[in-house]
Amino acid sequence: MAELQEVQITEEKPLLPGQTPQAAKTHSVETPYGSVTFTVYGTPKPKRPAILTYHDVGLNYKSCFQPLFQFGDMQEIIQNFVRVHVDAPGMEEGAPVFPLGYQYPSLDQLADMIPCILQYLNFSTIIGVGVGAGAYVLSRYALNHPDTVEGLVLINIDPNAKGWMDWAAHKLTGLTSSRSEMILGHLFSQEELSGNSELIQKYRNIITNAPNLDNIELYWNSYNNRRDLNFERGGDITLKCPVMLVVGDQAPHEDAVMADSGGQPQLTQPGKLTEAFKYFLQGMGYMASSCMTRLSRSRTASLTSAASIDGSRSRSRTLSQSSESGTLPSGPPGHTMEVSC
Ligand code: BEZ
């Protein structure tokens, strides 16, 4: 592998009552498609995969995942796993703007950078958590490297290339709104944007004033130029691992606007997502019910078969019923859990 750089950064992280700080270490590795930065929290746990996250366009790992990973109930889950949070190139805090003419990697190439990260860390398997463009990148990685992916949490994934209608709409929006409003329109519904809640104000502020907006536009262009993942139910091109599919009820492309969440459920509904994630991990045999909160334990008992106490893995156990946070089932048994929140 090519040249490696390492930078140590101690992250600021507000502590929840009774919690001790977890060290975070940021690294950069060179890959055939340029350098990629990622931040590791926690220490590797024997016989457990790393949780590896990939963020959406307009965000970085912190703005995308901090509210979820710092959510109180999430702590009992993540303390059992090392976490690797990838920043797409040019999205890391303080990233310099790429020079004019820089060829930003395609989403497929972003996926091809992941083996360099895992090789550097000497990690063999992951549970991927991706949002939007990040969910696409992790799916592509899982299709190419199925043996290294134990599970995937895909939030607001669009596995298809843009059709000509999408392109026309995209071009029209490009003529009538700013780059930052275009990105915000990808992340949030029009209803949320016009509601202008504190959360929307915060993210509008982050994106409008991003010093790396030119880089963000390059990631955005790669997202819009993605090709079909070509998933076929029961066909040759399928994800081989258990998948938790999450759709925000107000995701910009979700037609049926339902309950009380938004386009970015990991920001607006971290509690529901945490609960669903626990069920998902328990279905994979990673969360012994003794580790679960009393509330989750009682719900989970009725939703899943028992997970083994030592946390050993079984792909046959899975959720097959709706949880309070959303609808699950469908898909091949033991593999897909669908959550709408
Ligand atoms: C984590 O503990 O994995 C985490 C903390 C802060 C931001 C993102 C992730």
From TrEMBL:
Entry's localization field: Cell projection, Growth cone; Cytoplasm
Region span, Disordered: 1-22, 304-341
Superkingdom field: Eukaryota
GO cellular component: cytoplasm; growth cone
One GO BP: nervous system development
Record key words, sorted: Cytoplasm, Developmental protein, Differentiation, Neurogenesis, Wnt signaling pathway
Chief site of localization: other
Pfam families: Ndr
InterPro entries recorded: AB_hydrolase_fold, NDRG
Function: Contributes to the regulation of the Wnt signaling pathway. Down-regulates CTNNB1-mediated transcriptional activation of target genes, such as CCND1, and may thereby act as tumor suppressor. May be involved in dendritic cell and neuron differentiation.
Record-stated family: Belongs to the NDRG family.
Name of the molecule in the record: Protein NDRG2
Species this chain originates from: Oryctolagus cuniculus
Lineage: Eukaryota, Metazoa, Chordata, Craniata, Vertebrata
